Amino acid sequence: MSGELHEVKLYFAYTSPFTYLAMQPAYDLEQSHRVRVRFIPYGVNIRKVYGPLDRADADRRKVRYLYIDARRIAKERGLIIYPPKKIFSARLAFYGGLFAERHGQFRNYSDRVFERFWKQELDVESRGAISAIMTEVGLDEADFLNYADRTARTDLDACFAEADADKVFGVPTFIVDGEPFWGEDRVTWVIRKLDQMGLRR
Length: 201
Known about the structure:
Elements: E1 6-12, H1 17-32, E2 35-41, H2 46-50, H3 61-77, H4 91-102, H5 106-118, H6 127-136, H7 141-150, H8 152-165, E3 173-176, E4 179-182, H9 187-196
Parallel strand pairs: 1-2
Antiparallel strand pairs: 1-3, 3-4
Helix pairs in contact: 4-5, 4-6, 4-8, 6-7
């Protein structure tokens, strides 16, 4: 039997509560199965999908309900999710994730970003805040900022292009052997698929 790990893709966003809930189950897949999870940033245009949510007259019932569900699940897992007070761009945080991945610190970086953002303790649009996390995980702040200003946009665009090729429309989305599974609650199906492929450790 080959010792090569099968790649599972997970398209994610730091500003998605259901992505936050999918992260630990995704990490667990690498322990239960002979897989490597590749985390790929993907941005969803919230205003396009749900309308102008920062307008007082916007219909926000669906979004409010989704946060209720997310907080229910989070409570069961000992996590905290406070709905953000505005729509944030995750672009800078994505740059941080790509940089951290290059240096073997993706999980250390991402765990901090998710936890603090959903506790309303982190502004993901702040260069200073993201740079501080880089320092915490042992990476060079100046190197990160140089990356963010020079080549990060190209790398992120490549991630979005890959998402388009995979026909991704939302996060979190797992791709297993070309088959998409959208949503934190689809992890059980991901596991069944991996089992069918004979990848259980």
